[in-house]
Amino acid sequence: MNTTATLGTDNMAMAAVKKPTEGTDVSPFELAAEHATVGSFEVENAKMSIKNVNVYYGDKQAIFDVSVDIGKNEVIAMIGPSGCGKSTFLRALNRMNDTVDGCRVEGDIRMDGQDLYSPKLDVVELRARVGMVFQKPNPFPKSIYDNVAYGPKIHGLADTRVDLDEIVERSLRRASLWDEVKDRLYQAGTGLSGGQQQRLCIARAIAVSPEVILMDEPCSALDPIATARIEELIEELSQNFTIAIVTHSMQQAARVSQRTAYFHLGQLIEVNPTEQVFTMPEHALTESYITGRFG
Prior knowledge:
Elements: H1 11-16, H2 28-33, E1 38-39, E2 46-57, E3 60-71, E4 75-79, H3 86-92, E5 103-111, E6 114-115, H4 123-129, E7 130-133, H5 144-154, H6 161-174, H7 178-181, H8 194-206, E8 212-216, H9 224-237, E9 242-246, H10 250-256, E10 259-264, E11 267-273, H11 274-279, H12 284-290
Parallel strand pairs: 1-11, 4-9, 4-10, 7-8, 8-9
Antiparallel strand pairs: 2-3, 2-5, 5-6, 10-11
Helix pairs in contact: 5-6, 5-8, 6-8, 8-9
């Protein structure tokens, strides 16, 4: 787990921050229009590579020319004010935006060199390789067992019932849920607590052996104890999976991620190691956001 970064900054850190608004009346809106992404947006061991991505809802542009790499087995956190485009960007990574009428994505998104927007790509297979955990737990109206077994069944990952049992148990163990549900696997998944439901959804996502897991504010509806369990789980999962998480909690980003990306008005302002973002941000907008001047 990333060493918890200190929220706020000391005088030396702030002296190093570039502050193009200092001594002027330039608003954050005008500043964003002039920016180029700063920081370490390229990595050597990239699992996903995103170049010059723009996202539109009809005539409205939501994402502006975003480029960033996501490293293999990295946890990258995406932060920013509500409506800044971070969830829209996350959903572009496994083509969930395809399901939204009028939405179109331009640019280049690749995983291990493969074009994820190629017309020849099987989108169902893509969403198995790049799983998604949503803000609100959404277990199927099925048993705990069937929630986890559903994906392996439709993707043909189990030849026998024994194989399927092994996948279900392994996935629930990885999601730190097995010991809590092993004696009620055939009870409804919707009968679990909120935190347990979210871990069930994580087990369901990893049951199909994805390469990347996208998490869209997975703890926003959970209590502090359940949130801590999910954060511990993220650290464990990062040993085997690449994880991109959208969060409104800067403290959570500091706890779970190695790199943090700050979005503002649909633009990627800064990407840097998490500790640097929270102690010595490179861009004035990042500094303004983490110190509470807006957002």
